[in-house]
Amino acid sequence: MQWEGVIKHYFKYLPVTEKTPVVTLLEGNTPLILAKSISRRLGKNINLYLKYEGLNPTASFKDRGMTVAVSCALERGAKAIMCASTGNTSASAAAYAAKSGLTCIVLIPEGAIALGKLSQALLHGAKVVAIKGNFDDALKLVKEITSKYPIALVNSLNPDRIEGQKTAAFEICDVLGEAPHFQAMPVGNAGNITAYWKGYKEYKDMGKIDSLPRILGFQASGAAPLVEGYPFKNPETVATAIRIGNPARWGEAIAASKESDGLIEKVTDEEIIKAYKMLAREEGIFVEPASAASIAGIMKLDKMGFFEAEKGSAREVNIVCILTGHGLKDPNIAIKESSPPEAVPPEEEAVLEAVEFEV
Ligand code: F0G
Fold it and tell me: Strand 317-323 relative to strand 182-186: parallel, antiparallel, unpaired?
């Protein structure tokens, strides 16, 4: 049986009716992969799982929210949708707009979005405008324009986005048969952390799970307003997806960490790149830098002794890290962080020498 997309699968949990014109690219149902090598580093009774959201149709978690936001916008009679984006939202909005026939307008910070994401938005036919400013400036403009004109805003300020994205929490619980003990994720504009926490709470209220996870959010240290407690005017990080200085869902992010007895911490670009390489080399999983922030965060907390009580206990402890976007989104970083291949003559000896192969 083919998977039918998140709206059909989780219909009764979403703001849709039989009349809603469902726009889907069959998003969702992403794998929850046991990270054997990283789990081993953490301790005997600790299972670290990777929710590989890069395997969604446009290669990020945004598709879960976009299927709901675009379907509902269409139902309300919208002719156009609009978003500000560090890249992934624009790629997703452009694809779902293409599928539905809606016009898509996206504002991006000039020169600050990864190549893969820009290529998606352009090829899907979105009207892409680069702003001489950052994401926060772009979002402010989108809010102003969509409040004046009949254009639906599809950033995560739109509640339909949150509704769709909460389905990832449902999937994790459906696979594990319970909520994980901890859930780690990168935080930018703070829509996704809001969505996951809502999803877990709803599943608990419905009696699908007995307990809630502790939510661990991670920001890049150059773009860490939620950690420092004030907006960043000029956010800077290698993880361009989360290069955001003033998250729209600030209050909800803090609430998710507090209510769940979790935290929001920061990780340096160096820690992010280390985790990025570790995922690629030890687990065979290619993510974009922002996604590696969740692993970097777990490694940092582990070093600080955060999991000591868990390690001593007899129970199995499940940690789920959300890997929000695929590595091919940002190929430039992957190449920059690797040694370029050596060119040699087309001869056996030269090849064996180049790879330092010893029999
Ligand atoms: N990871 C990736 C790969 C993202 O693209 C984003 C956000 C996040 C994490 C953070 O999620 O904003 O809900 O806290 N990207 C947005 C965009 C801002 O425009 O694509 P968040």
Answer: parallel
